[in-house]
Amino acid sequence: MAAPRSSSASGSASGNAQFHLAQNAIHHAPNAAIRKRIGTELRAVWNASDLAKAEAALTELVETYRDAAPKLAEWLEENVPEGLTVFALPGHHRRRLRTSNPIERAIQQELKRRTVKVRVFPNEDSLERLVSAVLVEIDERWAVDTKAYIKWECQDA
To answer: Which among 7, 52, 56, 81 is least surrounded, fewest beta carbons within 10 Å?
Structure first.
């Protein structure tokens, strides 16, 4: 079994927080039956319509596992509130902020496309210069892009 991932974005609406929290929960589950359903149960918490309902659903979930899986219940109680930080954002942003995989994938593909052509870099500094230039180029493109991944000026959907 793989080691649980640690989250470095405690208290923030980080992109992959919910995904990694669900994976970590699986690693804290004591048996296969619980491992199979914990992701779905956590998704129900994150799909709540507001923070109060999400917190209530989380409390209910923790109580469900208090006797059957006390370590999992304790872990859920301590760590899952971090994944609820997205409720502080406008509703139309929550779904997109659950994962940053599309953005990361686009960046990784562009970096790979540009670095594969070079193949062998003379030193680490030359690699860093190329990667930095690509990232600056991407940032500049996103700064003027009218098809932003998230538009903060949007109204609640």
So the answer is: 52
Contact (Cβ atoms closer than 8 angstroms) between residue 39 and residue 22: yes
> How far is Cα 129 from Cα 145, in angstroms, rounded to an integer?
24
| Cβ neighbours of residue 127 closer than 8 Å, sequence gap 6 or more | 115, 121
**Is 90 domain-assigned?**
yes
pTM: 0.58
Helix 70-79 and helix 51-65, axial crossing angle in degrees, nearest 10 = 160
Question: Is position 152 within any domain?
Answer: no
pLDDT, tens digit, for every residue of 59-97?
999 999 999 999 999 999 999 998 888 888 877 777 666
Structurally, the chain folds into a number of domains equal to 2
The whole domain housing 87 covers 17-97
